[in-house]
Fold these 4 entries.
Entry 1:
Amino acid sequence: MANAAIHKDNLIQSAMRLFRRQGYASSGLQQILAESGAPKGSLYHYFPGGKEALAEAAVTHAGRMVAEMLAALAKKHRTPEAFLFAYCRQMAAWMEESDFRSGCPIATTLLETTPASPAITAAGERVIDGWIDVISGVLARGGGTSREARSRAQTIIAAVEGSLILARVRRSTKPILDVAALLEPKPGARPKAARAAARGRRSSAQRPEG
């Protein structure tokens, strides 16, 4: 990779880490430059819009990393239940590795900058929609309409995001892992396919012979 590309990538990576750990407002450009090792003049060369443009790139990059992780899990785990458990387990592992100091890689930045910054807001929306695309695709394997799958996917993302806050407060991965129970069948409940089959048998039994 050429030096120019390395400097740009290092700036994005450093901004992503600092925004995630200490927030957008508390992360100064000089600190980001120092941590990235990039030349002083490089920041405005690559990001003429300054800190806002760098944050937009950091949100996009972090969001892409999560989307790639979700896509890999979706390929490996065919059922919605197995996928959600693996997703929660991965997020719990990331939280534990950070000693409960990190959370969602984009949440802190979005909470501090949206909707005041249209550029960062748009980047956040694209990222979250991408996550929904992957998760809803997995949920659709369990039946239901595309609209239902997208709605449930958004609910799962909201639950996971909330669980990351609880995990930091409680210094425990349990709130994250508990989200996996959202797709567990309730005691005595039958899968949708089984319910449909039962209705079909009842309909056949009631049909008059002729």
Entry 2:
Amino acid sequence: MASFSSLAQSVSFTSQGSSFRLNDKHPELEPIGKGRSAYAFKIKETNLVIKVFFPSFESVAKEEADVYKVLGQNPYYPSLYDSGDRYLVIDYISGDTLFDCLVKGIEIRDEYIHEIQQALLYARKQGLNPADIHLKNIILTKDKSIKMIDVARFRQHQKCRRWLDLKKAYTKIYKKWFFPNKTPEFVLNLIAFFYKRRLIPSFR
């Protein structure tokens, strides 16, 4: 296998306005996701993911790597294996995000919410301030345990209400009899769109 740094250097992007399109990559890399700051690739024949950041977000690579170093070895977070100027390498987590669970009709149980609470409590005990917690960065693994990913904003100073609002929505809406078994993806994206623009009131 090529070195992690060589794999990262093989990735190139083409700018498309405010976003980026994947232009080229090493054949050992399998694209598995694209976020607002990076592409994620599974390294073939391994259980590792390399996250390569867009040029305008390279500082986020160091920030996220530093947060993973603070978190250390913990069952609720992937381990960090390497990092560089524009990349980091972590465990590949197989499973469904909570967003996927709502779309597919996979039950989100009370114990999963408790595990998320424990994961966030652990991070706070390490001196971090977990933020930007949303349905797409919480994974329910194949063995029905919780993993948290995308931790770059865990050192921000301002208070983030996202998890508080998600937790209350779980109790006040998801657990009610009228909540559908499956929720269309476009509906979830629409809710997120309005929430980010504060057009949906936070739970108090």
Entry 3:
Amino acid sequence: MDDRELVERAKDDPEAYAVLFDRYYPVVLNYVARRTNDVALAHDITSEAFYKAFKNIRRFQWRGLPFSAWLYRIASNEIAAYYRGASRLESLEVLAEQRGFDPASEDDLEAEIIRAQEALARHALYQSCIAAMCELPLKYQEVIALRFFEEKPLAEISQILGRSQGTVKSQLHRGLRRLQVTAPDFFRDERNLPRTDALSVQED
């Protein structure tokens, strides 16, 4: 079943939302883990993002972008709220108890957390880059993570973050310039993120 049909069903059927949850929880968790460099925190933030998505699923409207873009936007907002100290993280158990929502089993969720932790810890050099990125202003973290870790096109990043494509391009350029200074060893390996002077940020 495609996302469009599932989303429409999920507005009245928690089981349909559970399918969407199982489909997108791993990718959103990985995104949040890369942004926070903390898998336990990423699990909490991702759970809150999916909780809020479920509460607001009836308001979702198709605007030419995938359903996942909406989830990324909610997750990005939750990350920003957490670092502002304004986030009150809820448990997915609320969905199970109040709405009849039944996500993947706890074993499945734990497996996703373990996989995310392993991905983060795989290379010390990658870890150093993530740590350096987490020191950047949030506006740079967001565009770099979405563009290079999630491989999102500029148009989708613009919609997720509510910024013009020109602003996204500018923030990519400036954020990568800063990373070149704080994580130079990572950029010396051509297999990693492209050097800023070789960066292509044209339309996808």
Entry 4:
Amino acid sequence: MNKLIFSSAIVALCFSTASIRAQDQAQDAAAAQAEFLDALKLAPEHAHLKSHVGKWTTEMKTYFEGPDSAAVSKGSATFTLLYDGRYLQQVFKGEFAGVPFQGRGLTGFDKTKKKFVSTWIDNFETGILTMEGTYDEKTKTMTEVGISHSAEGETKMKNVTKQIDKDTVLFSMYMTPPGGTEALGMEITYRRVK
């Protein structure tokens, strides 16, 4: 009789333990699913990207010959949102030193890093520039940093994008070449087409 009671207790314990494990696994699966669904949601920072959507004219000033010798050229840019507002795509067309210049950029907010992340490609390079940074709501300024690679070595890059008003944006690109000091390389003034 004691063996029967003991055996019954062991069986009940096994079923109880299996039931508890199944409940824990179900709770873990539910928590993982909830975490996954939360990761799909846009962050409040994504709302900033919407302000750039539309067509813009551009005036690009390059300072590669020094701060007093700006070369000026005109162009255009179109900004669109991708994937339900997760990313902002820029398609840029203009001219640089008398040569047609085209570029494409993507900007998004990485919820994991808690930073804005962007990429840039154009018809003058073969690399992909990646930048990371933050947006200051008070000053309406995004500041991003990254590294550009070339035959001369690594150049530190800093891009500062300031929303002057809802129809005007000033983009400034600063570069620090190997062994050099930071200098303004380019400014682009974007004006919304109405």
